[in-house]
Amino acid sequence: MVKLQKRSEQIRQFILDNVEHYPKDIASLAAKTFEISRQAVNKHIQHLVEQKALLVRGTTRSRHYLLKPLEKWDQIYALNHALEEHVVWQNDIFPRLGQLPENVIDIWHYGFTEMLNNAIDHSSGKNVFIQLERTATSTETLIHDDGEGIFKKIHREMELIDERHAVLELSKGKLTTDPDNHSGEGIFFSSRLFDVFDIMSGCVHFIYHHNEVEDWIFENQKSTSGTYVFMKLNNNTNRTTKQIFDDFSDENYSFSKTVVPVRLAQYGSEKLISRSQAKRLLVRVDRFKVVVFDFEGVETIGQAFADEVFRVFKKQHPEVELRHANACKDVEQMISRAQFAFSNG
What we know:
Layout: H1 2-18, H2 26-34, H3 38-50, E1 54-57, E2 64-67, E3 71-78, H4 85-93, H5 102-122, E4 127-134, E5 138-145, H6 150-157, H7 163-172, H8 186-193, E6 196-209, E7 215-234, H9 241-247, E8 257-261, H10 275-282, E9 290-294, H11 303-316, E10 321-325, H12 329-343
Parallel strand pairs: 8-9, 9-10
Antiparallel strand pairs: 1-2, 3-4, 4-5, 5-7, 6-7
Helix pairs in contact: 1-2, 1-3, 2-3, 4-5, 5-8, 6-7, 10-11, 11-12
């Protein structure tokens, strides 16, 4: 009886975990996965519908299933000195998260308050719209301010080439336009805590999705006003804030390590060939003790680019440990060549 009950729970959890991606085919997918009949799966689906965990849409061939929101809420706040992120968290967000595990609450507490604080302190907007939706499997929030736009502001204040360069700088961490009052760590750590972390502003869309190629820049055809921050997290994730902070901290708990997605230094179809492109990549990395250059998605680099990163910069900053990951054969050869030149220089 206990085994049967456990198997039923596994089947229903599988349905909830996968229905978002397979709204029309979830029954056949579950039947194949657990080697049971479609009729048996339909009983489990009906149970979830009765529990109000699933919604049914359409009939016969057009029938599909959706996760039913257990909580759906939104509100607009005036962006002024009276607005405090911890008050919004305590009064409006935390009570709507339900009985989520402590590690999940901790992630939401950190990420939500950091992102709302950014809107309050940096956006120069008048209002911020906040939306929350919680289902049986995950919770998501949207924070949209009507201010200048995060990428535009970083581009302007740091005098960068264009707004896409702001994404590269954000991905490194320790970036802030107000160093006296902010550490510049909020977006870096929030992006790594959540399953989905998106920022959309102007014509640029920055996406960080776990379990996929991590950092992406998309250029929107239509410019958006203000800044949109979207965060989504599985309600039963094992991830913890301590794990993520430890991954990028030294023995003194200082934010000392960063992973730099090298592909963010290339715009459009350009190849990473020149020293100027390498210098674009290397901006501010001397602030870290350990720098990991992630070459995922980079098919080739030029000799000058590799030499600037792995010989010239290393010679100028011997205290910084340079590592690399996910390099293809051609890229690895160029890196090895530069490292050999450094060792024999």
